[in-house]
Amino acid sequence: MRAPAILRRVGRRLPALLLALGLALALLAGLHLYLARGLVLESGIGEPWRTALCAALGLLALCLVAQPIAERRLSRRLSRLVAWPASLWMGFAWLLLVGLAASDLLWWAAGRAALAASDAAPPGDASGPRAALVAGFALLVGLAALREGLRPPRVRRLDLVLERWPRALDGFRVVQLSDLHIGPLLGRAFAADLCRRVNALAPDLVAVTGDLVDGRLDRISDEVEPLSGLRARCGVFFVTGNHDHYSGARDWTGRVRDLGMRVLRNEHIPIGEGDDGFDLIGVDDHRGNPLAGDGREDLATALAGRDPRRPAILLAHDPTTFRRACRESIDLQLSGHTHGGQIWPFRYLVRLAVPWVAGLYERHGSRLYVSCGTGFWGPAMRLGAPAEITEIVLGSSRRGSP
């Protein structure tokens, strides 16, 4: 029954899927043509370098298209031969686009200023030096971002005082992991190092707030095995992210349970006893998987039957859940998803869709912490948004009261 249902959903959504695919390919082609024009065709580069560079841009564009196909069709070892060039090019291409667009804007502004001043000459043609400057900028900044992206995630400690937090739980330590993206590039060694470092923090609770994996269970199941060693006094908890749904959330939640984690799918559980405890709430990513009919955030179901007078921590992959959660007696929401923008200045584009990009926020007395993520997605790069293991130490504002 499951396969026919999926096929029916795919059939209903096929026109929209084809349109989205066509637009994505057109955008990819357009961006590479923009790079070719600004960096090669108008830069004065002679043959045979002109043709060679244009061909290289075309091959790199095809590499981006081939990467998701290779991830599903080739062995892990072979797919990495496509994944690494695609990852690196995605990052460098972004920086080239930023540099080229900024130079075009500055050149346009210089031309306007020259026209406004009658005695000033318009700027001459400097396409060659400008292309070299943009390429040099992308190379230097890209190497710095690559170095940061491949570093182990830092431990970021956050001390939070919550109005309703029980005095008996002062010093309660939550370690948050988010957006590990174990898959084509990050694997077993990365997971083992995370497990060792998290356990060294001696947490009371570990929260994995989604996007654990990128890839089907039958391809990368062994890569997550070291996470079975995670230890916390009150347990290790997991909620799904959008990439977990893309990778098959039904299969992966079963595997996560085998690793010893408690999966929270639109539900809550009590931690501690009576007035000395709190409720831990977990919701699915709000996108779910519309093709498989699996998941989707249901905050109302997750909160059903809960005493709103009890303190509550909500695990939700996407920060936009905070729009609703801040009105539901939630003391703290832990999220990820945004990667903090991952490569500056992408965070400003993220902000157009998600107002909470990274760090600590407050609304209606509720707190939200958005992790920059523990791994990376796409480019193996980070710039202005370092990866993190977040150690959150909770305290009560009532600690001095009788």
Task: Characterise the protein shown here.
The protein folds into 2 domains: 13-148, no CATH class; 154-396, Metallo-dependent phosphatases (Purple Acid Phosphatase, chain A, domain 2), CATH 3.60.21.10. The strands form 2 sheets. A 6-stranded mixed β-sheet has the order 1-12-2-3-4-5, with helices on one face. Strands 6-7-8-9-11-10 form a 6-stranded mixed β-sheet. With 402 residues, it is α/β, with parallel strands linked by helices. It has helices at 2-41, 49-73, 76-116, 127-150, 188-200, 217-220, 242-246, 249-258, 299-303, 322-325, 347-353, and strands spanning 154-162, 172-177, 205-209, 236-239, 262-263, 267-271, 278-282, 312-315, 332-335, 359-363, 366-370, 388-396. It starts with a helix and ends in a 6-residue tail after the last strand. Helix 1 (2-41) packs across helix 3, helix 2 (49-73) packs across helix 3 and helix 3 (76-116) packs across helix 4 (127-150). It is 44% helix and 16% strand. The model has no long low-confidence stretch (mean pLDDT 90).
Output the keywords.
6-stranded mixed β-sheet; alpha/beta; 44% helix; globular; 12 strands
Distance between the termini: 60 Å
- CATH class value of the largest domain: Alpha Beta
Structural domain count: 2
Radius of gyration, in angstroms, nearest whole number = 24 Å
Mean pLDDT: 90
Compute the number of helices. Answer: 11
CATH topology of the largest domain: Purple Acid Phosphatase, chain A, domain 2
CATH architecture label name of the largest domain: 4-Layer Sandwich
Helical content class: 40-55%
What portion of the residues fall into strands of 2 or more residues? 15-25%
Which spans of ≥5 residues are poorly predicted at pLDDT below 50?
none
General form: globular
Total strand count, please? 12
Secondary structure category = alpha/beta
